[in-house]
Amino acid sequence: MQSSATFHDLNGASVFITGGGSGIGAALTEGFLRQGAKVAFVGRSDASEFVDQMEQEIGARPLFIQCDITDIPALQAAIGQSAEAHGPIKILVNNAANDQRHQTAEVTEEFWDWSQEINLKAYFFACQAVADGMKQLGGGSIINFSSISYMMGNAGYPAYVTANAGINGLSRALAREFGPDHIRVNALAPGWVLTQKQLDLWADPDALAAHLDRQCLKDHLEPQDIVDAVLFMASQTSKMMTGQTMVVDGGVVVTG
């Protein structure tokens, strides 16, 4: 992966990413490392091989903390560990999510609670945990990953769609609350990004062709497209942008 722009203020910044060891999250970790940031990330699966790869390719080793983000005390402890290692967190990227497909008739109370815990609840408590450190720094940037799924009204995963709409509301509310301390809170809503997981599970030729037909831009989204947007939102280049949802989807939905 090659950086398309350099954001000088990200050099040396303390960054914390949830789900930063695979898929879009791994691309985010790499992107911030290439900007010179000090990156810590959590993930449920072992990411030691990825950490070694980053050190070999970039010369910088991210801090990996194995953690299930639905375990809020463990998530809070991981954020504290990151701050001890790299200094108060300046940039939080709430990226981890689970878009498991499901039908309304199949949803149990346990499944509903699990979906909200991983896709929304953990986001709130991560934001809460970094707020004091960002105040000490005189500001910071929080980027909450949402999805265009709720804008499209997609069927096939109603609990996930509900959580993504909630992320938009959460980001607006916290932007208002945290703004006086120069902490910016924005959401990022990607379209269909062709990670390996998507290719393995859902991206059959017919589905890809149908989705591409809905896009204004006739190119499939790649993780780098999302990384570039996140780096912009994290940096002082976007210092007066808060309470917003940025859509990166090739032109499927139209905001405003």
UniProtKB/TrEMBL annotation:
GO molecular function, one term: oxidoreductase activity
Domain of life of the organism encoding this protein: Bacteria
Keyword vocabulary terms for this entry: Oxidoreductase
SMART domains xrefs: PKS_KR (SM00822)
Pfam families for the chain: adh_short_C2 (PF13561)
Domain spans labelled Ketoreductase: 13-205
Family: Belongs to the short-chain dehydrogenases/reductases (SDR) family.
PANTHER family: OXIDOREDUCTASE, SHORT-CHAIN DEHYDROGENASE/REDUCTASE FAMILY (AFU_ORTHOLOGUE AFUA_5G02870), SHORT-CHAIN DEHYDROGENASE_REDUCTASE FAMILY PROTEIN
Entry protein name: SDR family oxidoreductase
Organism: Parasedimentitalea maritima
